[in-house]
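User: I'm putting together notes for a lab meeting next week and I want to include a structural view of one of the chains we've been expressing. I don't have a solved structure, so I'd like a prediction I can at least talk through. The sequence is below, exactly as it appears in our construct file.
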Amino acid sequence: MRQVFSRHGQVTVEDVPLPMVTPGAVLVQTAWSLLSSGTERTNISGQRLVDRIRREPEIVGKVWDELRRTGVAETVRLVRDKMERPIPLGNSLSGVVGQVGPGVTEFAVGDRVACGGTGHAHHAEYVVVPRNLVVKVPEPVDLRDAAFVTLGAIALNGVRRARAQLGETVVVLGLGLIGLLTVQILRAAGARVLGVDVVKDRVGLAERLGAERGIIAGETDPVRAVLAHTAGVGADTVLLTAGSESSEPVNQAFEMARARGRVVIVGSVGMDLLRPTFYLKELDLVMSRSTGPGRYDPSYEERGIDYPLPYVRWTERRNMEAVLQLIAEGTLRVGDLVAGEFPADQAPAGYDALTASGRGVAVLLRYAADQPAPVSRGFAVSRRARSGSSTTRVALVGTGEFARKTLLPALRRHRDVTLRAMVGGNSGTGLHDARRFGAERYTTDAAEVLADPEVDAVVIATRHHLHAALAAEAARRGKAVFVEKPLALTLDECRTVADAVATSGALLTVGFNRRFASLARRAKDALAAASGTALAIYRVNARALPSHHWLRDPVEGGGLVLAEGCHFFDLVCWLLDEEPESVQAMAPPPSGEAVDEIVATIRFSTGSIATIVYSTSGHPSLPKERIEVLKGGRAVVLDDFRTLLVDGKGFRASDEKGHAEEIAAFLRAVRGVAPLELLVRDGVRATALALAVMESAATGKAVAVAGAGRI
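Assistant: Thanks for the context. Below is the predicted structure for the 711-residue chain, given as structure tokens.
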């Protein structure tokens, strides 16, 4: 299928595989998609380094930190890769449902729908969109007009935030697409609307669409004009629908508003506020967040968990439905906003027309309605490599940042490895990586790869909730499996994977890389030479993650104690070479759905004790990990895998945590030249220990640990 991207700040149309339909989502064959003058240009210019640094100056600090951590060559490689990656464009479209995912009951194949959502409603012939970002199109509405659904919902949410009442005077500052939609919605609500813009044609269009008066900012002082129109009182509300890095629009809005009026920020504007007017008028300053409640909430957008209507009347989806109803009634006229229509293959020309047009503020892309869906979700990327008895043919499932930065480079170091296939959820960026790393084939369907008889080994690097099912199926198919940690998120999932491995006899290892760090191995050897019980302290100074990060999501990531903590639980068990018996844990009050920080004391079957302190509250200047073990007259201190003290004698190593060696060890086992060092039971033990830690923190009681043989 064809999809539109931004590469190096230029618009391209490329062939990509058909996306997989996921649970709670629908596959839509696109009929029309909308280009808007503000949002689209921002996405394109955002790929140009100078533009991005100007908007996000903190990037310079991040690059500098990476420079100090990894050196010049690696930092340059990472920055170049970041800038070269294609950015999928689009966030508003209409079409027809072609397939319904598991769990979706409100849509059927053939339904006419409109879809929204950055990251979902791309300019593409086919898209997969979660259910809460899809709405049915009323029969009177043409699919062409329904493509305005996302931008209309942004405008409608701004009006709702303004709480404009019948007869009030409202200024719309900025008459781009969202501004002109806002003018019409306000007029329908009974407000007296004044429109302000520097473009004369847009001001005239606003008046034709219902504005009581249009003000050309370049020809008239807009503040004086508003005050004159309101007999010196000022507007009841000012909505900023402009896009500008300058703070002049918001401060102008303060001047336009009446005392105790309201200023609503819908667009992206500078926020250096001048306090005197703001304070003396006692103004309300309100932010309007995109399409409404539910936006940026993964539970709502990705998992389809709706907000109860009696408590949240207007959600993102209900705003989208309301916009289509306004179009159906003729209240919202979108046809006058269109600067042109282009076939999707001519998207670059559409963007050029959008930039050049003075009157229209939107461009529509149209798609062939009679084109059948591709049968395969994958295709050949590079020439097939030569293979022989000494070649290991590997498939990678999951093309996220960790796979791209760590696993793929580690695999590429081995000349006897052929990257048979890559599976990615994002067909554009994943395909880019497949070409970059020389994969023979790229697909969005994992089942296609698992059924491929020419795949010897599967590396699984998806989000955590998919690990167990993929690992179990790969094992049943007789593939050697490398699954990133954690092995699973529940004990039931652990059982499923362990049973599949036991039945098939397949090799399976888990990505606990710290075991393979050179200094960790030296530390283990030193402890093995000592007798008696051990006392250990493992302190982890982890970086804090945003509240919406998927690792903190109990459903997708498992929460940090399981998602990352399993690393530390595994390592301490391996270092001491002992089995955990029980755990007592405490945690500070959680800041989200799952516990982020923990202090856990593990008692082992021989009497040894280890305490793990996992925190996200520390300063980044402190090294991330420090392990101290006292045993049989020996003292072992491992500091961030860079330095090791054994009874006062020091050892050093490069900043590596064993990723390259764990891949090498897995490949040796696949080829049969060495036994597998890390087994399924180790992955089961780490998950069981993490779950016991979280249970203990929740109950305040010691919890027995279910071992690999007791699940």
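A couple of points you could mention at the meeting. The two ends are 45 Å apart (CA to CA). The chain has 24 helices and 32 strands.

User: Perfect, that's what I needed.
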